Structures are given as structure tokens and as C-alpha cells.
Automatic annotation (TrEMBL):
Example GO biological process: thiamine diphosphate biosynthetic process
Organism listed in the record: Kutzneria buriramensis
Record InterPro entries: HMP/HMP-P_kinase_dom, PM/HMP-P_kinase-1, Ribokinase-like
Gene3D superfamilies: 3.40.1190.20
Cellular component GO terms held in the UniProt record: cytosol
Catalysed reactions, as listed in the record: 4-amino-2-methyl-5-(phosphooxymethyl)pyrimidine + ATP = 4-amino-2-methyl-5-(diphosphooxymethyl)pyrimidine + ADP; 4-amino-5-hydroxymethyl-2-methylpyrimidine + ATP = 4-amino-2-methyl-5-(phosphooxymethyl)pyrimidine + ADP + H(+)
Record field: transmembrane: none
Name of the protein in its database record: Hydroxymethylpyrimidine/phosphomethylpyrimidine kinase
Pyridoxamine kinase/Phosphomethylpyrimidine kinase domain segment(s): 16-265
Amino acid sequence: MSNSTPPRALTIAGTDSGGGAGVHADCRTFFACGVHATTAVTAVTVQNSVGVSGFHEIPPEVVAAQIEAVVTDIGVTAAKTGMLASAAIIDAIADTCDKVGIGRDHTIPFVVDPVSASMHGDQLLHDNALAGLKNRLFPRASLVTPNLDEVRLLTGIDVTSRDMMLDAAKAMFDFGPQWVLIKAGHLRSDPECVDILYDGVAVIELPGPRFDVKDTHGSGDTLASSITSALAKGATMPSAVEFGKRFITKAVQNAYPLGAGVGPVSNFWRLSDDRF
Ligand SMILES: Nc1ncnc2c1ncn2[C@@H]1O[C@H](COP(=O)(O)OP(=O)(O)OP(=O)(O)O)[C@@H](O)[C@H]1O
Ligand SMILES: Cc1ncc(COP(=O)(O)O)c(N)n1
């Protein structure tokens, strides 16, 4: 007897030694969603609940080789990016995605989370890499998932109300992705957390409660990797994002304290159980 191969997702991202965000959050989320996790590590961060004190970049050719090794043998049914660190790594990823068939014009859906800094404000992407994100990755993306700080950095739009999120979505859409998801986590004046999904025509609101919690480390990664999990199983973009929104809402609700700083959202809320 042999069992069938499950859906496989690839995360192209940095590690978080504290285990709250990055590759760790992505792999846990893939696992919780019943998806086999594969990785292409871009950088190793020195990180805990208080912040990021440094990182070591992986050579671009090693990042490319990881992607190629995984896709050509294991095959992946969806891929996502997180921390990418440098322009050279972004170039290597874009070239490799074209080579192995990842992206909006290929069969493997590609979620690009334009991570620029940690929630503590520590920079995770060099300033000169923003052009690479815009010119090389966004046009290949099936979905881009900026938070409001990333929207400001990439488009100059300072979103201060729910109405302005559509302006942000339109400006991000002009960079060439198939879909845009604007995340409302940083719109703290809003009593709810309503994210917006846009494809140039449809505007889909993703409503959700706003929980009064301090432990939200890894929320962006967890949302993007739960969406990627649903895409890996063949979901359409609107239903993948609706699934992701349900997943992250429960993950924030079940966030837990860790260390002296900010704890992570729970990627394993679905598995919580009091039995061994
Ligand atoms: N306090 C909250 N209560 C409920 N949902 C939240 C809360 N904060 C963030 N979210 C949700 O979490 C997801 C990630 O949003 P956010 O805007 O915080 O992204 P991010 O800044 O990239 O996350 P990160 O904290 O990893 O940097 C979104 O779906 C958002 O609506
Ligand atoms: C390796 C890595 N990737 C992503 C984040 C962003 O997560 P957060 O905004 O919650 O700090 C991070 N801190 N570290």
C-alpha cells in the first residue's frame, strides 16, 4: 500500500530564532493546514520576542538552488515569500521562479508578502531592494499582501481610514500582481480588522474582529502561509483569502505570551487539545 502525496507548499523566507515568525511560522501553518512544508531560506536572523539584533544573508545562488531542488523533485502546488533581505536575493528568486514555473503566468500560485521590517521596526530588507520587489516580484505575484507600513513605503499612501484602503489597493495593483490584499492590522483607530482583496475589478471585504492583544508577532506570515496552504490545495484566490482570514483571526485570538517582549499568534490553534 502507498499513501498519496499531500499538497506541497514552499516558503522563501528568513528564519526567526525565537520561532514566532518567518520560516517557522510558515512551516507550522502549512502543517496545521495539512500541507507538506518545503523551504528556501534567504537569511538567518538573530531574533527573540524583543526584536531582531542582526541577520546573516544566504548567498543568492544558494537561495536559487534551494528553490530549484525542491520544485524539480518534490514539486510544489503553491509558493510564498517572506523576508528577502537584498536586491540580489530578489533577482535570484525572480529568475528561478521563471525557470521552474512559479508565478501568476505559470501553474504554481505565488504569494508575495513584501516584508520590509519586523514589528519592532528592525529592518529586514535593504532600502535599495524596494525597486526589486516592485519591478521583479510584484509582476510575477498571484497575490501581494502588504501591511499599511509597507503600503506607505511602496506607494507613498498613508492610509488613515478604511475608505483609503481601496486607494492603496489600486496603487499596489498598478505594480502588476494578479490580486492585492491590503491588511488592516495597523489601522488601530478602526474597532474592526477589515482587510481588502482587489483584482482590478472586484473589491472583496474580509471582515473580522479586532482583538485587544499585544502578542501579534508573525501575524502577517501566518495569514500569507494559510492563504498559500489553501492555494496549494487548489482553492480560488477569493476562497483562499477567506480561509486565511478565518485562520489568522483564530490565530490572533489564541496568541500567547513568550519572553519579555511580544509573543506570537498561534499557528497551531487547530491542533490544541488536552490529550497526549
Ligand atoms: N488585533 C488584531 N485582531 C484581529 N486580527 C488582527 C489583529 N491584528 C492583525 N490582525 C489580522 O492579522 C493579519 C495580519 O495583519 P497585519 O496588518 O498586522 O500584518 P503584518 O503587519 O504584516 O503582520 P506582522 O505582525 O507579522 O508584521 C490581517 O488579516 C489582520 O487583519
Ligand atoms: C524572519 C522574519 N520574517 C518576518 C518577520 C516579520 O514578522 P513581525 O512583523 O511579526 O516581526 C520577522 N520578524 N522575521
